[in-house]
Design brief:
The chain is an alpha+beta fold. It is built from five helices and twelve strands. One of its GO terms (biological process) is cell wall organization.
């Protein structure tokens, strides 16, 4: 199993202080509709480092941190203990974002390829999700895009080889869940935050999801 210890011995080891959607659907939003939704989920006067109408702990706001230079630019690392997502940049830095991870044993540590990314995606719950949450039955045919969609404003689709894992890194209409364990398997982000991250993520990049059961204590 890929563990958090493989990634980080302490939080400062690699990073220091700051310097399920259908492929075919009946309807797709227009570019103007997407732009209107983006405006709706982006607070007025938004500044990623300080804007916080969601009441997040300040450590979950986007922050540029120092990264070990051996890490591959473009890759994503999810620390499930500290609830951080790191997007590695050129020159030894990374952007760090607060996230929520899956409940219980639904979180799946592993190494994934990002093979698809979508703005304002549709969402279709899996059969297992419907079995666990019968209220999802109403969306068995797919949930239309929009600010209340379960995948929010952006989604990065995680694959193992050519197989869709049905895991996503995505926006959420429930920003107060950030920092907790809330999803059915995916990694959640504030929509304004993933909107900032999204254009910087390349198809083919690797996403490393580290174990939430590792005993290393995270530093805030």
């Amino acid at each position: 199993m890929l563990t958090r210890r493989h990634f980080i011995q302490t939080t400062t080891a690699l990073f220091s202080a700051s310097i399920a959607s259908p492929l075919l659907a009946d309807t797709w939003p227009t570019e103007s509709q997407k732009a209107a939704w983006d405006e709706q989920v982006t607070p007025l006067g938004y500044d990623s480092a300080t804007t916080n109408p969601w009441g997040l702990h300040p450590r979950f706001l986007p922050q540029r941190v120092v990264a070990k230079r051996s890490l591959v630019p473009g890759d994503i690392h999810v620390d499930a203990v500290a609830r951080y997502l790191y997007h590695i940049e050129e020159g030894g830095t990374a952007m760090r974002y607060g996230v929520a991870i899956a409940k219980g044993d639904l979180y799946e540590p592993g190494t994934y390829a990002i093979k698809r990314k979508v703005k304002w995606p549709h969402w279709t719950p899996t059969k297992n999700m419907i079995e666990r949450n019968p209220e999802y039955e109403q969306y068995a045919g797919g949930m239309e895009p929009g600010p209340t969609n379960a995948l929010g404003s952006r989604a990065l689709y995680l694959y193992v080889g050519n197989r869709d894992s049905y895991l996503r890194i995505h926006g959420t209409p429930y920003p107060k869940s950030i920092g907790g364990r809330a999803s059915s398997g995916c990694v959640r982000m504030v929509m304004a935050h993933i909107n900032e991250l999204y254009p910087n993520v390349r198809i083919g990049s690797t996403a490393f999801l580290y174990s939430a059961e590792d005993s290393v204590t995270a530093q805030s």
